[in-house]
Design brief:
This protein has two domains: 260 residues, Bira Bifunctional Protein, Domain 2 (BirA Bifunctional Protein, domain 2), CATH 3.30.930; 90 residues, Anticodon-binding domain (Rossmann fold). The chain is 37% helix and 22% strand. The chain has 16 helices and 20 strands. Helix 13 links the parallel strand 16 and strand 17. Helix 1 packs antiparallel against helix 6 and helix 6 packs across helix 10. The two termini are 48 Å apart. The structure holds histidyl-adenosine monophosphate. Histidyl-adenosine monophosphate (HAM) binds next to strand 8, strand 14, strand 15 and helix 12.
Length: 440
């Protein structure tokens, strides 16, 4: 018989691990709400064209990693075309920003509030080569703050401080925060041209990936860790000491310094790295990345930045100057970095044991009544010897077992065993709920 496994690069989150996930998610929700962010839930798939337009045709995520969803249902193919009239269909979302901006505009948030603060928690999908910390289905906690004329270094600092606050709460204490400014849209264009001219003579010395990057997204060459690429960067004169040879305009530099200073005022240390670029095309001005120790090569626990231009790209009002900034943290990497271990399964309040058919009927009714009263209760549905039922109660970490033996059934009572100290007493069946409320 054919056996099935989870698809490559995905994994089951088994019941024993769920308390860890619930802990991260509930802490996140509490903190995010305290910063004024409201939850948004968008579909896990969108038109492929949305991602192409947002993340950039040339980005790795769009070029190599989009997982397409068959655009047909009930035998009827649905032909969706993008703006170049290419059939594009749907894709599973590789990230959350594009969907949030789509929804922001579709639901006219920009007409109704000066700043909209969203958060989301959910699965994302990228067809990447799986390795430690990198999977094809992973989960993000993300925020997006979007609004007309909302750009302010205070908001950038708030978003970064929020990411750091969350990580601290999750137990990721040792992290490294890098920030940079990619400058304005115009600066990015000039900078791309500058890099092209500077690196062109050395193109053949770049690694294979960077040769592709040279054509598609030349900024990524700056991030390459390959020795030969680092040498090319040095000798090409792209760098001027620790800065780039093409200085940022004064306004962008001032903004970056302001973000750094505000973070410092909050006690958050950041390192300005002019090497930091991002794999997604939509960023301008502030970008940042947070790495943690012990994760190997996939050490980014979270990243984000500003992307005001994207709101226009997706159809925002041409006359409005949109500000938009956000980040996403990877939950799997957070769990790896925090070293959190699986907690002992939570105890249940009571386990009901019956000895015969009549007792089983009574037990089933009692289990139902106790659950309705808010007491977590379980039983063996197919009966069995008392020993094996006791074992099950122990496995489930029950605080009390309630035993309906022959004697108890006759006298209308039930034996209550405290599983912590072994003490046992008989209680009238009619008064069991009141008794449990007292002892639990
Ligand atoms: P990103 O850097 O592509 O940014 O992803 C953010 C985080 O998601 C990463 O730092 C990492 O922790 C996690 N992550 C990404 N890919 C994988 C993977 N294959 N396996 C496991 N974890 C992964 C974004 O997604 C942007 N939308 C962030 C943003 C929001 N920028 C502005 N707003």
């Amino acid at each position: 018989m054919q056996k099935f496994s989870v698809p490559r690069g995905t994994s089951d989150i088994l019941p024993d691990a769920i308390p860890l996930w619930e802990d991260v998610e509930s802490k996140a929700r509490k903190i995010l709400k305290s910063y004024g962010y409201r939850e948004i839930r968008t579909p896990v798939y969108e038109e492929t064209a949305l991602f192409k337009r947002s993340l950039g045709q040339a980005s790795d995520v769009v070029n190599k990693q989009l997982l397409n969803v068959s655009a047909s249902y009930g035998g009827i193919a649905e032909y969706l075309k993008d703006s170049d009239n290419v059939i594009s269909g749907y894709s599973l979302r590789p990230e959350g920003t594009a969907s949030v901006v789509r929804s922001y505009l579709e639901n006219s948030f920009d007409k109704n509030e000066p700043l909209s603060k969203f958060f989301y928690i959910g699965p994302m999908f990228r067809g990447e080569r799986p390795q430690k910390g990198r999977s094809r289905q992973f989960h993000q906690i993300g925020v997006e703050a979007i609004g007309p004329k909302s750009a302010s270094p205070y908001l950038d600092a708030e978003v970064i401080a929020l990411a750091v606050h969350l990580l601290g709460e999750f137990g990721v204490k040792k992290y490294n925060l890098k920030i940079n400014s990619l400058g304005s849209e115009e600066y990015k264009k000039k900078f791309s041209q500058f890099l092209r001219t500077a690196l062109n003579p050395y193109k053949s010395e770049l690694c294979e990936d960077c040769q592709t990057r040279f054509e598609r997204n030349i900024f990524r060459v700056l991030e390459c860790k390959n020795e030969s690429c680092r040498k090319v960067l040095e000798k090409s004169g792209v760098y001027l000491q620790s800065d780039l040879h093409l200085p940022l305009d004064q306004e962008s530099l001032q903004y970056l310094n302001d973000v750094k200073r505000i973070l410092e005022d909050l006690g958050i240390r950041s390192e300005v790295s002019r090497h930091l670029v991002r794999g997604l095309d939509y960023y301008t001005h502030t970008v940042f990345e947070i790495t943690a120790e012990g994760l190997g090569s996939q050490d980014a626990v979270g990243a984000g930045g500003r992307y005001g231009g994207l709101v226009h790209e997706l159809g925002g009002d041409a006359k409005t100057d949109y500000g938009a900034v956000g980040f996403a943290l990877g939950i799997e990497r957070i769990l790896l970095a925090s070293g959190a271990t699986q907690p002992v399964p939570p105890a249940i309040d009571a386990f009901v044991i019956a000895m015969d058919e009549a007792g089983q009927k009574q037990a089933f009714k009692l289990v139902n009544d106790l659950r309705h009263a808010g007491i977590s209760t379980d039983m063996n549905y197919s009966g069995g010897k008392i020993g094996s039922q006791m074992n099950r109660a122990n496995k489930l970490n029950a605080r009390f077992t309630l035993i309906l033996g022959e004697e108890e059934m006759k006298s209308g009572s039930i034996a209550v065993k405290n599983m912590t100290n072994g003490a046992q007493e008989n209680v009238e069946l009619a008064g069991i709920l009141a008794h449990l409320r007292k002892v639990l």
